[in-house]
Each structure stands twice: as structure tokens, then as C-alpha cells.
Fold this protein.
Amino acid sequence: MKKTKLAFLFLALLLVMVPVLQGCSDSSSSSSTGSDSKDSGETVNLTFSAWGNPAEIKVYQKAVDGFMKENPNIKVKLVPIPSDGYIQKLQTQLQGSQAPDVFYVGDGDISKIIETGKLAPLGEFMNSSESYAKPDEFAEGLWGAAKKDDEIYGITVDCNPMLLYYNKKLLSELGIKSPQEYFDAGEWNFAAMEEVTSQLREGGKYGFIADNGWASLFSWIWANGGEIYNKETGEFVLDQNEKGMEAMEFLAKMVKDKNFTYTGSLPKGQGAEAMFMSGQVGMVAAGRWFTPLFNENKSLEWDYISWPSNTENKTEPVGIPTAYLAANNDSKHKEEAMKFVTYYTSKVGQEMRLAGVGNAIPSIGGIDEAVTDSKVPEHVDVIIQAREQGFANAIQSTIPGLDKEVNDIMDLMYLGKDDAQTTVTKLAEKANTMIAEHKGE
Amino acid sequence: MGKRQNLWGYTFLAPQLIGLLAFSLIPVLFTLALSFMKWDGFGAKEFIGLANYIDQFTEPDFWKALVNTAYYTILVIPFSIGISLAVAIALNKIKGKDFYRLFYFMPVVTSSVSIGVIWMWILNGDFGILNQVLANIGIDGPMWLTDTKWVMPSIAILSIWWGLGHNMVIFLAGLQGISRSYYEAADIDGANKWQQFRHITLPLLSPTTFFITIMAIISSFQVFDQAFVMTSGGPAKSSYTFVYHIYEAAFVDFKMGVSSAAAMILFVIILIFTLIQFKMSQRWVHYEDQ
């Protein structure tokens, strides 16, 4: 008797709770409707989220202020989100319709977010007179996964072609021929890379810190004239081309011989940049993001060198990590949001953020001097040239989860647990399965 | 007759009941429902029957996570219970018990994230305190958190240390509940300390031990924070625990259905283990009044 009563009570309570719980998920967008302001009619309030360290956030704010100056009736509030867990937070906000009007999306996540239908298509707006930037002003190789079926869902905020940083002082102290000399002689190839890192090891230092990520991996494969995905069909082809296999063999050998030290074997939080600055390591790979940090360290003598090329060409394409700015499809002020997106990524917006010693280089043509005039470092042009040849993460990142799976398989090779052949076999199996699954959906 | 009274009773229970419904029961039912659906967290949910469960049983990562978690449990449980019992017995008759109790209990109330960060420094292979201490006594310490063989034992060591205070306090309470008269009687009969421990302390402490064992197994199956903060499941998935697998399916791969299925499987596993323990407890747990 009592039990049934209790059950009824539970049921009643459940029914009472249902509308309440549903109410949580149908709430409207986060941007508040503007209140009446002084004289220019309605003020529109936009929220804008991005990841970045405090110094970077300050730089983003410059472009935000520039936009508000030009559009006094639009207020943009920059709400930083920590990069650790950024996509999880954004996803949760999108689910609850609480997401900002405009937000950064990483190159590995954008295709997932496009599939949710939560990103506003920008193509039409970009070709209108309202837009601050036109699609054809951007480097073609940088659209990556932000373009789908010829529609644009995100614009590169800037870009970061991969290259190597080397410690000039450390190399000359150990009497090692500088990568620049090899490069000028047209010999900056795998053999030179091996030579330099071996000499560094003999000098009691680490040679090169290898990180696990698509950008480095693809750069190594392309450096040997190899290919990992067919750029036309999107198929995985690393296991079918000699050159790509050679590059993998080289990587595995470098790790095994301890010429390269894997970041995954370094404790979490002990980064390559710290080891570079303390003179423990001769070379590290990155985009421009280490530059502001190294530039502040006045005792450090360093320079850029392009990724080693193992073909007859002086340089080969590299991976270009980038982030995209997207507008929320559910925003109450979609028009203004898109306006801000195009301003932030336009020549004006990018120059404000990247001039001098910034954390990236422009993804839009015509303002490279803003970066190269800084002369930091001496061969700053290397990074601009790298952009002309390189590619953003286009194919791998459009298959949800593949990026991570590839990293997990590579992890074992970088830790010296799998050889190159085993690794490539595993990669082929995983990639082919996931690509087929994705096509079937 | 008692209808009005019952109503009052429920009214007083209401805050607790509503809380339980909104934050426990409904989410659990929601998870159960989701585990039969395909959902990326957005848009329409599609009913797909048992596909998520089948997907999990054929997923190598699922088995890897299960094996890792089982391994961790085997490492943690005996040591955790043994050491906390030893410490509790040592503290039981000591002067300044309160001070020590506070001392041992401190880690328990510290946030897991800060504990993780601190231990990352302790266990750092190159310049961690632990390896420096070991070096001083001539032992070449391993790369605790970046060697695939050592990472799980490292996390286990942290967990044993972390749970020590909690288990110890419960054991202490259990020890203090044992009447002195048993020991006095045993003394008169000429039982030595070991015999007293073996035939009085252990049997009379068994309800406490039983409670701690159940709780410890449940919490060790749910290990997540340490792996999340210190290693992100690495290197090469060697600290990829079951709850980390659930988290990753939901918030990295956006596969809410698959993640819910994995969560339900974990629920069943824990349930089975708990039932087995209850069954076995009839043989070794002695309540004083029986």
C-alpha cells in the first residue's frame, strides 16, 4: 500500500519537474536586447569568446575596440575562455543556446561544429558591401575544414605556418654548423637535421623536441615529397607511397636514436619553450606563437629556419595550424555578428592584432610588412614564405575523431614502442575505417 | 488515520526528494534513455536500440579502459585498506591522536586538481622530489608519469595516499566502538597481542572493513581526476581509465549515446561487484549483536 503511494508521489513529482527541466533547454539566446541609448537608436550588444593567454587577450581587445569605434551602435564584449576545455565549454553553451554571438573555433573542431548547424553561413555576407573582407583576399590553402560544399562557416583569424626555431648561441658554442648555412648551400635536408641533432646530443643537450600533432607530422611527410591524404579524393595514401614511408622511417629512427625527444615523454606542463629558453635543447618546432616569449628573453640568440626539405626543392609545404572565427547561427543579431567577424579578420583587424611581434602572421594578403618590418627574428621572411606553400588541416579534421586517433597511434611511435611500418599499417586501418564510416553517414 | 501525518512527513522530505529527483534520478533515467540513441549533443536524437552497446563491446578502447581500471583497482584496494588499518591501529592509543588524525585527513579535503598538480611535480622524472630522494639512496627512479609501465602504479600510489585519511578515520571510529572488556578477557586467558588482533579486533571491525571495501571498490572504478589532470590518459592510453573513456566519448568525440552506454555498463559492473561483496560478506562480517 505505502509503496504504491510513494511511487505515485514520485511520478507526480516527475511530471511536475518535466516542464521545469525542459524550460532549461529552450531558453533564448544569450545576447541581451539593447536598451535605448543616447541618440543613435538601439545599441546592439554582442558577446565574443576566444582562448588565449592574458597577453593575447589584450591584443584581441585592440581589434574589438577598433570595431566599436567604427560602429558606435554595436558593443562587443570579449569573454575569454581557457584553452583547456574550450571546445567542451563552447559545445555545452551551444547545446543550451547560451553561446556567444561570435567565437573562435580550432581547426580540429570546426567540422564537428559545422555539422551541428550552429554556425552561420558567411559566404553571402562576405560578398556584400557590408563586409570588411572578401573571400578571395585570403590565402587559398587556409580555408581548411571551414569551407564545406563551397560555403564558408568560419574565417581564419590569422595563421601559424610550422617552422623550426634554433638556438644560435648554443649551436655556435658547440661548434655546430648553423642550419642557415646548410640552407644557403641548399643542403637543409634530413641528413643535415640528423647531423645537427647528433652533434647537439654529443654536446650533452637535447637535439630537437618533436611534438605529436597533425601539423608536424604532415610537415615531415611533405618534406620528403610524400603524401598522407589524397587532396582530391580525401583517401588515406600514406601506406601507398614510398616517399611518405621514408619520412616515417626517418622520424622513427630519429626518436629511437634520441636525436629527437618526444614531448609526450616530457612531463605534462614541461614544455618545449621552457627547455629552449634554458638552453637545454637546440631546436623546437612551432608557428609564430613562441616568438613574443623568446623575444622578451634578451639573452637568448635565436632564429627561424624553414622545415628541412628532403627533395631537390629548397622548401616543401608545411602544416599551418589556424583558428577560425565563426558567427552563431542562433544569434539575435546575426547581421552585426557577421560584420564583426569580417572586421576582426580583415586587413585592418589583423594588422591591429599582428603588427610587430605577435603570436601569428596574417592569413589575408597585403599586410605582411606589419610582421616583417619587426625583423624579429632576423629571418622572419621564412614564415611568410611558408604560408604561401602550406596547408591548413583540411582532410583529416573533417572526419570527426580522426585527429585524435592518429595522435594516439603516433604516440606509440614517438615513444619508441612501435616501428614506422606498424604505425603506418595501424594508421591506414584506422583512417580507412573512419573515412568509410563518415562517408556512409 | 495517519494520512495527514504522512503528508507532513512527505512535506518535510520534499526538499531532499526534489533534489534527489532533479539531480540524481532524472539524469540517471536520461542516461539510460540516451544509451539507446544516437545523439551528438545537438539536434534530433535517433533511436538505434542496442547499437551503442554493441559498438562498445567491439571497441578496443573500451576494453583497454576496462583493463586499465581493473589493474588500478587491484593495485589500490589491498594496499589502501591494509595501510589505513595499520595507521588507524597505530594511532588508536597514541598521544596527540587528534593532531595526527587532522594531519592524515588533510589531503582528503584538498581538491583533486591541486593534488594532481602537486604530485606532477613530485613524480616528475627529471627533477621531481621523489626521484631526487631515490637518487640520494642510490636508486635510479623511473619516469613515473611518462613511462607506460609506471604511470598506472604512480596514479595508484597517489590514490592510496589520498584515500588514506578517509579510510583511517572510519577505521578509528570502528576501533573505538570495540568494547575494552573483550581485550581484558583475552588478557586473562593469556592471549598475546597478535591473537587479540586476529580474534577480536579483526572480526569486530569487519562491518567497518566491509563498508570501506565497498566504498573503495566503487571509487576506484570511478577513478578519473588523477588521470585527467596528470596524464590526460597517456602516455599511449596507458592511464586511460573507464570514466576517462566515458568523458572522452561525450565531450571530445561528441558521441553522447555511446558515452551513456559506457556509463550504464560501468553502473552494472559496479552493481555486480557490490552484490558479490554482499553475498560474500555473510561469511566474514560479524555484527556484535548476533
About this structure: Chain A touches chain B at residues 5, 9-10, 13-14, 17, 20-21, 88, 91, 94-95, 112, 115-118, 264-270, 400-401, 404, 408, 411-412, 415, 417 (CB under 8 Å). The first strand of chain A starts at residue 44 and ends at 50.
